[in-house]
């Protein structure tokens, strides 16, 4: 799989993403295998890898510093076979990742509504979806995210700029107490 995004990125960002692509592919392949082995599941919560965090930072152009006692997590949503979305969130370092489907689904739905939520749409070429079409769909997903971000700019300005919020109030309280 090639790096997911080529629209609205600088050449340097695209080159950096291309270098990370094989490593990200290993991680997203593991997600794909998980969903193949658990056909009743549509959502999965797991720890974010360093490569995914680097990918996110390249795409957003921002380095995120987490409060002490917190870490990055990824909620993966299976959209269709060979299509998934990774949603990044912050949570308590020792939070449980073995959630039931209903809980993982609820967490995804809760966090995806945040105006500054960062999601990556992964679409893999298949016999039904050749790579050029898959690349076009990935670019369209990125463009849609850019429009959402632009629309949320007034809301972010009202809040005093772009802020990262923990996924839930419990995480916010715990992270604040550890800081």
Question: How would you characterize this protein structure?
Answer:
The chain has 179 residues and is α+β, with helices and mostly antiparallel strands. It contains 5 helices and 4 strands; from the N terminus they run αβαββαβαα. Strands 1-2-3-4 form a 4-stranded antiparallel sheet, with helices on both faces. Helix 1 packs across helix 2 (50-60). It is globular. Mean pLDDT is 74; it is low at 1-6 and 162-175.
Rg, nearest Å:
16 Å
Structural class by secondary-structure content: alpha+beta
Beta-strand portion reads 15-25%
**Would you count the extended β strands for me?**
4
Major β-sheet profile: 4 strands, antiparallel
Rounded mean pLDDT is 74
- For the largest sheet, list the strands in their spatial order: 1-2-3-4
Tags for this entry?
alpha+beta; four-stranded antiparallel beta sheet; 5 helices; 4 strands
Outline:
The protein is α+β, with helices and mostly antiparallel strands and 179 residues long. The chain is built from five helices and four strands, in the order αβαββαβαα. The longest helix has 28 residues.
